[in-house]
Specification:
- By secondary structure, this protein is of the alpha/beta class.
- The protein folds into two domains: 52 residues, no CATH class; 32 residues.
- Helix content is 31%, strand content 32%.
- The protein has a three-stranded parallel beta sheet, with no helix packed on it. A three-stranded parallel beta sheet has the order 2-5-8, with no helix packed on it. It has a three-stranded parallel beta sheet with strand order 3-6-9.
- Helix 1 packs across helix 2.
- The longest helix has 16 residues.
- The radius of gyration is 16 Å and the shape is elongated.
């Protein structure tokens, strides 16, 4: 995982996957997320950037949309519950979730 600290990005595509950005500034960039690895964003500024989901992330969004629109009330409840979980405080990166011994 690469770390970028106090960097400025002007234009072009920036892939978030497998990178950490600390106090970076992004201007006029295309910000891509593909869900291919962890990311870190801390204290960054985004100005006139376009956000794009690609690959696995795009497929996941399509799956959630299909659930919401094609599985009736159950699918809608599942998607709403997923969004509620997203709103909860974040678990520290690379920390195991519910690891039983």
């Amino acid at each position: 995982m690469s770390e970028f600290k106090d960097c400025t990005f002007n234009g072009g595509n920036v892939r978030l996957d497998n990178n950490t950005y600390i106090n970076c500034k992004f201007t006029g960039c295309i910000i891509e997320f593909g869900a291919e690895g962890p990311i870190g964003l801390d204290g960054c500024n985004f100005d006139k950037c376009e956000w794009v989901l690609v690959g696995y992330a795009k497929n996941t969004l399509g799956f959630l949309s299909s659930m919401y629109h094609g599985m009736g009330e159950f699918g809608q409840q599942m998607v709403e519950a997923t969004f509620q979980n997203i709103k909860q405080p974040q678990i520290a990166p690379n920390k195991p979730i519910n690891q039983d011994k």
